[in-house]
Each structure stands twice: as structure tokens, then as C-alpha cells.
Amino acid sequence: MAKSLALLSLLLLCTSCIQIAGLTSDYKKLDPAAHSHISPYEVGKDTLPNHFYTITGEQIRQQFEQQDKVLVYLFANGCSGPTCYPLATFKRWADENGYKLYFVTTSYYNLGATYIQQVNTPLYIVNHKAYNSNMYGKYNKRFRLDLLQNEADAQALVKGDYASLYAFEKGKLTQHTNDLLLLKPPFVQQ
User: Total domain count for the chain?
Assistant: First the structure.
């Protein structure tokens, strides 16, 4: 009994010190000061650079009517993998190729890592509440299905290889990849 009590006490102590990120939207772990930098996206309203807006795939699709070319980059804040280039790199490619760019982060975790990049464009966060889930995998899948709703093979695209870049022209998906260097026209590094 004493061993069980000691083990339970140790377990409670450890769980109170350890934070696990990435299973949920991490909204509840957000620093209260950051709330002033986050607003719901409203179609037709002006957006501010370096301000975060919660958004749905449908709201991005509505922009297809105003924009011939749209690039959506879904990413994790503070991403450090081999295809995680600085946001300014994606912005340069989009500007050079005439794309309206949507930087869409997939959770609230480590939001500061994105904010400090100061890319002088609005930033977006998947609106997990619109997808009735706080579970990361569930709301991100629903967001991608929503974004790709007009594609004949949307289910296969979402179930297949995970892409973080989606290029649309006149409302149709033309490219999807995990690496900016694989988009056409090729990105020229300087």
C-alpha cells in the first residue's frame, strides 16, 4: 500500500511538471497576452499584417472568387524539419509567381516562433472550434477536407501523403507537396 501511494504521488508530481503539446489545439495553454493578437477571420473585412486570424477551409475557398492564384501553407509553429524554410521564403515565392498566400498554422503551440518572423502579412490559425474538435488530428483532417472540398479526390488527398503546400488556380488544385522546392515554377534560392 505504501509503495502504491508513493508511486501515485510521484506520478502526480511528474504530470504536474510535464506539458504535452500537439495532441490538442493547445489553445488553453496560450499565454493570455497573446489573445489580443488573435481574432476570428471575417470575409470581406480588412486583415492586419502579423496578426493571427482563426480561419476555416471554406473561408479560404471563398477567396478563390477574388484571387486567380492561391497558395496555402499549412505548418507547425517552430517547425525545424528539412522543408521548414523561413516564412519569408514562401512569401517571396508567392509574390514572384502571383499567388495570394495564406500562412495557416495548425495549432496555438509555440505561436511566438511564427510571430517573431514578422512577414508583414496576415497569419492564420485553423479554427478548431468550427470543426467541433479540439483534437489536433481530427480538426486538421476536417480543415483539409474542407479546403479540398471541390476536388474529386479530396478524401484520397487527405488520407494519402501529407502535403503542407496547396496551390490553386481559378479554384482548382494544381499542385500539392511538402516541399517548396518541388513547386512549379521552381524556386530559385538566392
Answer: 1
Pick from 63, 121, 66: which is nearest to 92 by CA? 121
Residues 66-110 have pLDDT tens digits of 999 999 999 999 999 999 999 999 999 999 999 999 999 999 999
CA-derived radius of gyration, the chain: 19
Helix, coil or strand: residue 9: helix
Would residue 162 count as lying in a domain?
yes
Kindly state the helix (H) or strand (E) to which residue 73 belongs, with its residue range: strand 69-75
Strand order in the sheet with 69-75: 38-40, 52-55, 123-126, 100-105, 69-75, 165-169, 172-177
Does residue 15 sit within a domain? no
| 112: CATH | 3.40.30
Q: Global pTM?
A: 0.87
